[in-house]
Amino acid sequence: MEPVRRIEGTMVPLMRSHVDTDQIIPKQFLKRVERSGFGPFLFHDWAYDHEGELRPDFVFNQPEYQSATVLVTGHNFGSGSSREHAPWALIDWGIRAVIAPSFADIFRNNSLKNGLVPIILSDEEVERIAAVAGDPAAEVVIDVEAGTVTAGGVTVSFFLDPFVKHCLLNGLDDIAITLDHESEISAFEAARPGFKPSLA
Amino acid sequence: MPRTLFEKIWTDHVVRSAPGEPDLVYVDLHLVHEVTSPQAFEGLRLTGRGVRRADLTLATIDHGVPTIDREHGISDPRSRQQIDTLIANCQEHEITLYGLDDPRQGIVHIIGPEQGMTQPGMTIVCGDSHTSTHGAFGALAFGIGTSEVEHVLATQTLPQSRPKAMAVNVTGELPAWSTAKDIILAIINRIGVGGGTGHVIEYRGDTIANLSMEGRMTVCNMSIEGGARAGLIGPDETTFAYLKGRPQAPSGDAWDAALDYWRGLPTDDDAGFDFEVGLNAAEIPPYVSWGTNPAQSATVDGAVPAPGDFEDPSEQEHTANALAYMQLEPHTAITDITIDRVFLGSCTNGRIEDLRAAAAVLEGKRVHGDVHAMVVPGSGLVKLQAESEGLDEVFTAAGFEWRDAGCSMCLGMNPDILQPGERCASTSNRNFEGRQGRGGLTHLVSPAMAAAAAVAGRFVDIREWAD
Ligand code: SF4
User: Fold this and answer.
1) Cα–Cα dist A104/B126, whole Å
2) CB B277 within 8 Å of CB B165
């Protein structure tokens, strides 16, 4: 993973709550065996009508939002299915951070593994930033180390677990971190009770 | 210090704990399926890593498999590629795979318990959010993403920050025709789709203790629909009786040792939870979802709400969106909603008990002329069991299609999908927009309610209708 220190750019607002991962990337696009290439299908069923025509009123289709890097949205974003294809699709489209009042747990974990930063702010702060994002040209700066979002001339702070932040800032591969503890894993395995199931 | 079931399992699986870092948790069983694993195996390949414990890994194919005409192979080239990829990965890493030619093939959350792989006190993960199902046995089981699948394949562990513990107490006698499905729909209706976020829910109380293992699996299965990391039920004699004699359950001395350990797992009296909710089972009638998330449900004698019934503006908007998508007018009585399709199956309600409950309703009746109904058993073994009991004949005589095992129309990754505007009574777990097919309209119900709706062509209050 590449280190993530600072995210700059513009925003796209999608002010709905409970946007589930079935909406972010519908099941018909989960058949790829790669991690990339999901961007064109992001929010597919909202982006296209039943005839396959682009819906011009959907915010992700509007030309002025095409270069947005930060998504601003409602409560419980990413609920439902554990599909990591959801953060992959957001990233592939160009999103680097998502600002919301709350996230579903698995989506949050999946995002962090891919360097997509989930930022939790209060309802009022999210609303304020969403209002700023109504101007597609409005700029946003996210400083991951300082834990701040600056938009519309206002700076607000957000919390990231220190370990999570450390991994993001340094682009750490957490499998490598775990494998550094190989001797502890082996010791744990040696002490596991014999009645535990095994397919050996 | 009194401890909860969750705390006991967690403590027994911490490989390493350091201040300021997530705990490193050992995984006893890793279940794998074709949709969320290819990129994880690819990751191993790119980094030159292997699978640490193939003996603790079990794979099946379920999400994308056809449920009809299997002998002709899989026609969708992308699904075929995904399935072939899993077969090749399992061969390369010597992982046990229940393939299409194996009677044990089925939905990943049905086969673990069926084989006795799912046991109390274990940690179980799978790249699938309904892994919470296995919590019915008093196992800590949760869904993970593909990067985490890769992590578990490589290390058999996962770094996890410790969730909070929540108790849902359900007490009293469940009324006739109310089922485990109605209990969990009632709970989610109460706590909301995000109500369990960051928590592991332990389901407690005499109503839960009186459920069969199958009913307990239905309850735990939908924990994720309340946003919870996992659901748990304390293991007891019902659990042990279910496990005894299953192919992967311990036997002989190992059984006794296991039983000793299992008996020590239930939550101690006086152990504290971070949050508690109580429900009276006597007040749980059959539920029918009307909206686009599982919290949006009503009792069968109730009606669809209007946006104005809610105070919170975002809830009003959410309700308006759901009604528009579901093509429902505010205040429509649930029993005035007509249906086109019935789907009986999924990891929520695709077990033998579910099929029996539906068949009991269908005995001697016919599916309504405007309804297309199908049964998709949760596993090949469920299918065989049902056939040995003659349930398949009850279903086919009533006009249901009798299919092969898989996820099928629960998510419609295979050809079993709703057409736009088709309305379905479904025993699955998610009524999200487009979940069962783009533009499809899903109502979540219990197997008996689905069977009755199939016959009547609309939702009926089974409590009156069946008499
Ligand atoms: S049956 Fe449905 S919910 Fe269960 S594993 Fe399959 S797709 Fe997921």
Assistant:
1) 17
2) no
Task: Give me the residue from B47, B147, B314 closest to A17, CB to CB.
Answer: B314
Instruction: Tokens for B43, please give them.
Output: 């990751």
For chain A, the residue count is 200
pLDDT of A57-100, one tens digit each? 999 999 999 999 999 999 999 999 999 999 999 999 999 999 99
φ, ψ at B215 (rounded to 5°): -65, -40
Structural domains for chain A: 6-191 (3.20.19.10)
CB of A96 within 8 A of CB of A10?
no
> What is the value of ipTM here, to two decimals?
0.94
Say which amino acid occupies B402.
W
Token pair of B159 as six digits = 């770094």
Helices (H), B213-279: 213-221, 237-243, 253-263
B459 C-alpha to center of ligand 1: Å? 24
- For A32-38, which contacts have Cβ atoms below 8 Å and span 24 or more sequence positions? A32/A85, A32/B78, A33/B38, A33/B39, A33/B42, A33/B81, A33/B82, A33/B85, A34/B38, A34/B39, A34/B42, A35/A88, A35/B39, A35/B42, A35/B146, A36/A88, A36/A92, A37/A92, A38/A85, A38/A88, A38/A89, A38/A92
H or E segment and range at residue B158 = strand B157-160
pTM of the predicted structure, to 2 decimals = 0.96
Residue with tokens 């002025």: A64
Using CA atoms, how far apart are residues B62 and B321, in angstroms rounded to an integer? 32
Report the residue from B15, B194, B434 with minimal CB separation from A184: B15
Answer yes or no: do B119 and A197 touch at CB < 8 A. Answer: yes
Whether residue A155 contacts residue A15, with contact meaning beta carbons closer than 8 Å, is answered with no
Cβ distance B28 to B52 under 8 Å? Answer: no
- What span, in angstroms and rounded, lies between the C-alpha atoms of B307 and B317? 7
